[in-house]
């Protein structure tokens, strides 16, 4: 089929198009209306339909391929490897669901999942989906303050965690961070369910903390039926960074998400039941939700869950997994590929990669060198795809399942079905012509699977993302972009203060707030600076209350280390700036707004731009001087 026609129908006749796509999943009760957009920008998909994500991901496949692999859990940190068939996965999920029910969790209750990449994390997510509890997975790399803000926002009845994660052979205790987070938070969960991996000792708080293995033992034969949910019930909340220090809870539905994932698995990822999918992301990010846990399983594929680094024990580890489990579709991020590119190439050559059909890369801009290199090494198409936590599945890509469209270096591709993408001039609001830079926007309604709202804050959802452009209600992606004459888009970075470090999205404001809590910091600016390996790194410029400790090089380094340790403790190492420089003045406008973009430009050796509103031009010289230290 011709993709252009397929796409056109998805925009011009949404009702027919999505009614067809909805056939890709099981419905317990059919929907009465495909789309209710009577209260824009809130879109309600498949109104009245009843379904369940866990049913579609697990139960649905038990009858036809119950003995086939569903979850392949590989850890090169603990050297454990276990394959769960669909039947075994179903049993484990029912055990976890029974454990959760025994702790009082039911439909609509929130469950916060703070876990490493172990099979139990997937059981917990699917168990929530099964009983209609709303999960909120928090990335294991986040520390106590990040966790505490999410606990206070989601108000979970239950937190599921583990004794520790592991990275490069070193255990990272989770329990002390979690205890500190619960202390910091105003909301207290009723229970904390802990998987004891035997990595570090942990103390359990009587009455609150419970041991997963002990409870699981009591529910070995549990048969927990699926709770059928209305399509617009909430399946999960996933927090993401924005321009304020307070992360936004991206809230997702059930039916729309299931259909969007099934549709994208078919048309974009071309995954077939019985094959194996390997996404190298983490369950703490949206890719982990959509394309480690739900997407592949909904398509009847086995999914690989990998705990470890891409280069440990050696740079062949991912390729040995591809060979062993005959992975057909692989998903990763450009940073990971750049890491591999620095390793000797023979590791890839050692493995039989003939099962692999395509590599999908997302999360950050894919540069042409990285893309061409990996395509050459693997000999398969490399498919860039652009999306966000908010959308849950690709906005731009190429849908090879519909038409073998060519990819274009440097471009993630064309709009995927249901996304009515526009490039809009930032100041005039006019539509940009081919080759003209503007803000990438999507005309409402957003397609199925995208965020329903900001959890608990409809107003924030509307105010943050939506505006009227030429009389139309449009959603802003907060990305700059260009559309070429053939309809291919190019993404040119964020329009806001969000930065992207190794494919991880971070808010500069969150990092600034953390650094400001250091007793000797009076003011700070954090910007994202281009980096060859990670895409961007965070760099901080701080004004000290007492500059004396930074008078010597030694003192400066010690203070820098101190500040980094504060960020590590509060946000986690992912938020740690690569450098902290000390200044006495920061570039600001006369109304006191930080000129982050000018600071960033200086750090990247570019022109600082329009400075007519700057309060004190000497501040720019200070940034330059600080960098030369
Ligand atoms: P996240 O919500 O963490 O997935 O981050 C979303 C942001 O990452 C987007 O708004 C973009 O700025 C960036 N991004 C994601 N995928 C791509 C891509 N393929 N090319 C360029 N930027 C991307």
Strand order of the largest sheet: 5-4-17-16-18-19-20
Class of secondary structure makeup? alpha/beta
β-strand number: 33
Name the ligand types. Answer: adenosine monophosphate
Residue stretches low in confidence (pLDDT < 50, at least 5 long) are none
The CATH superfamily of the domain at 500-627 is ANL, C-terminal domain
Task: Name the overall outline.
Answer: globular
What is the CATH topology of the domain at 500-627?
A: GMP Synthetase, Chain A, domain 3
CATH architecture of the domain at 500-627: 2-Layer Sandwich
Helical content, roughly? 25-40%
Q: How big is the Rg?
A: 24 Å
| Annotation field: number of helices | 19
- Please give the CATH class of the domain at 500-627: Alpha Beta
What number is the mean pLDDT?
A: 96
Major beta sheet summary: 7 strands, mixed
Instruction: Bin the strand percentage.
Output: 25-35%
Note the topology.
Elements: H1 3-12, H2 14-21, E1 33-39, E2 42-47, E3 50-51, H3 53-65, E4 69-75, E5 80-85, H4 86-102, E6 110-114, H5 119-131, E7 134-137, H6 144-154, E8 158-162, E9 164-167, E10 170-173, H7 175-184, E11 191-195, E12 209-211, H8 212-217, E13 229-230, E14 236-240, E15 248-252, H9 255-267, E16 276-279, H10 286-298, E17 302-307, H11 317-325, E18 327-332, H12 334-341, H13 346-349, E19 358-362, H14 368-378, E20 382-385, E21 396-397, E22 414-415, E23 420-424, E24 438-443, E25 453-454, H15 458-465, E26 466-469, E27 472-483, E28 489-494, E29 498-501, E30 504-507, H16 508-516, E31 521-531, E32 535-544, H17 553-570, E33 579-583, H18 596-603, H19 618-627
Parallel strand pairs: 4-17, 6-7, 6-8, 8-11, 11-12, 16-17, 16-18, 18-19, 19-20, 32-33
Antiparallel strand pairs: 1-2, 3-13, 4-5, 9-10, 14-15, 15-25, 21-22, 23-24, 24-27, 26-27, 27-28, 29-30, 31-32
Helix pairs in contact: 1-2, 3-4, 3-5, 3-10, 4-5, 6-7, 9-10, 12-14, 18-19
InterPro entries: ACAS_N, AMP-bd_C, AMP-bd_C_sf, AMP-binding_CS, AMP-dep_synth/lig_dom, ANL_N_sf, Propion_PrpE
Domain AMP-dependent synthetase/ligase: 59-445
Family: Belongs to the ATP-dependent AMP-binding enzyme family.
